[in-house]
Amino acid sequence: MAEYAQSPFHKNLTLDERVDDHWAWAMATGGKSFFDGEPYYREPGYPYLMAATYRLFGRDPGPVRALQLALSVASVWLLYVIGASLFGETAGLASAFLLGAYDLQILYTDCLTKETVSLFLSLLSLWTCLMAFRRPSIKTWLFAGITCGILSVVRSAGPLFAAMFIPAFFIKICCRKDCLVQGWEPEGDEPRVSLPRAMILSAIFLAAMCACVMPVTLRNYRYGGEFVPVAYQTGHMFYLGNGPFADGKLARIPGVSPNPVHEHKDMARLAEQLSGKKLNCRETSSFWFGKTFEHIRSEPAAFIGLMIRKTLYFWNRFEIPDPIDLETARRFSFILRLPLAGFWIIGPLALVGLIVIRGCGMEEWIVRLLAMAAIAAVIAFFVNARYRFMAAPFLLLWAGAGATATAQAFRATDRRKILVCAGVLACGLALAFSPILKGDPAIGFLMLGDYHREAGRLDEALTEYRKARNAAPASPEGYMAESGVLFTLGRTDEACVAAASGLKACPWSSELQALVGRLLSARGEYGEAVIYLKKALELEPANELVWIDLALACEKAKQPDAADEVFAKSLANRPDSALLHAEYARFLADRGRHDQARGMAQKALGLEPGNKLALEVLDAIGEDEAGGKSGSSSP
């Protein structure tokens, strides 16, 4: 971490990191955050943790990263303890070594995202559940419930442990004639774990887990009037991973912002448009589940092909960037360039452990089912580095067990077992090194360009963006970034040329269509600008900024009736947009239509209290009307 502190990605936060940072600081200071007045769209556990450190140390990521460093080291120890208790000392050491040398874990320790904390809590929950399973008492089951409850607030995985361990506990008791639990020391006068006592212990576990989640649930009910235990993004994510736009990775839907701050609002607006009625948070999530299953039923063959593709993506060694590109990060870290353990070896070894090891006890079978459930959960949605990292705690355990089983087979010269282990390992490596996934050659240049741009080094940013454009000529991002920097530098004509060349390569890009329209408008060519902005709206009709640009272009072209019509159409498409209402209010006020302007400004304030433009319009209307009254009463 000391070495990586010189990386631009340490100094400048990615989009997801900025969202959590802003959210945490708002909670720490009582300021306005993204989900004020509504249920949480995303799990709030990690921002809660950041808010606590910000409250103590100020808005400094350093203490958060120091805490994540401590949790990373603790995770290595926890993995060793769990692995040694399940598969033996050697397997525990192998699992701990793989985690300690896991390149993605090392990188995520520095990122302001929940992955490091989530990994630690997953291992802690697994350890406490195993202790409760082996030595059932009120204390062990209470502690297990608390850890699973905290994990549920950070990442909704706590119920998975309850679904595995509680039924297994009852099965273990019922399968013993005397209802004794092996290895349990009797408590007081009650030497047996009877079914009623098992029910009490399970109830304690569930009560403790619910008590940890309850503050979030009550907060969601207060602001939404509906039962949302932690967050309601599941239906949305399921649609992104399996809907008509799905490609096995995180898909993008036209009209839905990739920014997590706006994503849930765009998805809710789109759901209401398609359903034709007002939906609350739970209904919105259910709507997207329904749309996904409707698509699956209509195209079952495409769905089967998508699931096969996602399965291949899961076992591939390539880490699909989210929120940062591992390959780009290596350029700034000697340690990350070392031959570290990556998914290229963890995945194949985990397959060996899951397939080869037989004759396990009940605890090992629970961990096997947890691993399989984690894999299925990722494939059921979509695959990227952060989502696949959810399965890491369980895969690392089986990877350590697989490595130990292979070594033991060679030491015992067990030819049959050697062949089986070698065959499974070879298949795993073939899946890992399959060329089905390749890195985006432009993403590293784009990230570095963003870093230089935020630092004010626009010439260096321009160089990186041009490299991105040349590396991926069929991708619009490089052209857009290059045009943006050229426009900032005052080189508008060159910016137009760059955007137009991008549009030739990517005519399907609504962003490039809109960018060309804005640049033409900046040059005073409003008629041409209107053409491109209308094309952008045909591709993405819900983009409020393009509607505003189109209305402004008509207004500057001295076509107020056309601008008025554009604003009316925009509000029909985006009735929830405070920005559109405020801009329309400004337009109406400029034309002396004060009553209509006042109504629009008040609607904008109803959608977004404190909207600056709406307040300015109301102030301007008040001043105009006051001036008119004083003028009419003068001699």
Would you give an account of this structure?
- This protein has 635 residues and is mainly α.
- Among the domains are: 4-227, no CATH class; 579-630, no CATH class.
- It is built from 31 helices and no strands.
- The protein has helices at 8-11, 15-29, 45-57, 61-87, 89-100, 103-110, 115-134, 138-154, 158-174, 195-224, 234-242, 260-275, 281-298, 300-315, 326-330, 343-356, 362-380, 385-389, 392-411, 415-432, 443-454, 458-471, 476-488, 492-505, 510-522, 526-539, 544-556, 560-573, 578-590, 594-607, 612-633.
- Helix 14 (300-315) crosses helix 17 (362-380) and helix 30 (594-607) packs antiparallel against helix 31.
- The radius of gyration is 28 Å and the shape is globular.
- The model is unreliable at 177-191 and 630-635 (pLDDT under 50).
Share in helix: over 70%
Helix/sheet category:
mainly alpha
**What's the total count of β strands?**
0
Q: What is the average of the pLDDT values?
A: 89
In whole angstroms, the N-to-C terminal distance is: 77 Å
Strand percentage, roughly? under 5%
Largest sheet: number of strands, sense, barrel closure? none
Summed up, the helix count is 31
Q: Radius of gyration over alpha carbons?
A: 28 Å
Poorly predicted regions: 177-191, 630-635
Shape: globular
Key features?
globular; mainly alpha; 635 residues; 0% strand
In short:
With 635 residues, this protein is an all-alpha fold. It has helices at residues 8-11, 15-29, 45-57, 61-87, 89-100, 103-110, 115-134, 138-154, 158-174, 195-224, 234-242, 260-275, 281-298, 300-315, 326-330, 343-356, 362-380, 385-389, 392-411, 415-432, 443-454, 458-471, 476-488, 492-505, 510-522, 526-539, 544-556, 560-573, 578-590, 594-607, 612-633. The model is unreliable at 177-191 and 630-635 (pLDDT under 50).
